[in-house]
Amino acid sequence: MKFGKRLKKQVEESLPGWRDKFLSYKRLKVLVRLVSGSSPHRAVAEAAFVRLLNDEVDRFNAFFLEQEEEFIIRHREVRETVKAVADEEPSEAEPVVQMRKMRREIVDLHGEMVLLLNYSAVNYTGLAKILKKYDKRTGRLLRLPFIEEVLKQPFYTTELMSRLVRECEETMEAVFASDNSGDPWTRKRCTDTELTPMATEQGILRNTVAALVAMRELRSGSSTYGHFSLPPLEMETTLSEHVSIPVADLVQSEARGVVPVV
């Protein structure tokens, strides 16, 4: 699949509030054509291309940092809630409601953080591809110095987010564990009834599956894999171990294009 179509698919499958935050790939392609053509406005188009690239990176950084800060706060609140519920004395009805609410919050948070990692990967890949087109059509060498600067940008620096995802998965493992300990938040596995509001109201679960598929494709080795490609995906999601929906099956189905994304 060509990157332009893949990007369009990613935008459509993203959260509604995120859809105008992705790379303006079409605008950049138009400017590349103008720069590489015989137009008398080539110099103007070239300046506009570089300016738009810089503006896009600034936009990615602002959005990524805003989301990262929000996720740090939510992650801390979730962990505090889990600890508070675990320390409470078991009762009949209230813990069930608390567990259900807590599970929704954890899965939603995990899904949104995975989507942010995917946001970083998709936009980095888009920058690398449009710069490759620019260099090929103009004979210039803009990609290497520009990407070297991109690698230092906040939106590409995902170590903190990756760590938060792993910690969130550890929390999920504890919360969704099924044992006989008697703890109010470990007494029973998440059911389809509990999961349904998460999947239908926000579509985060299916969007996360789509993001994981895209990240795997973007980071997989291929005939076009090169110096500017993202490294292979190493992050392992444990979501399928903690909820009753077979997420691994959803990933495979989405990869085959048979799962509609909410």
TrEMBL record:
<dbReference type="GO" id="GO:0016036">
    <property type="term" value="P:cellular response to phosphate starvation"/>
</dbReference>
<dbReference type="GO" id="GO:0070417">
    <property type="term" value="P:cellular response to cold"/>
</dbReference>
<dbReference type="InterPro" id="IPR004331">
    <property type="entry name" value="SPX_dom"/>
</dbReference>
<dbReference type="InterPro" id="IPR031142">
    <property type="entry name" value="SPX_prot"/>
</dbReference>
<protein>
    <recommendedName>
        <fullName>SPX domain-containing protein</fullName>
    </recommendedName>
</protein>
<feature type="domain" description="SPX">
    <location>
        <begin position="1"/>
        <end position="148"/>
    </location>
</feature>
<dbReference type="Pfam" id="PF03105">
    <property type="entry name" value="SPX"/>
</dbReference>
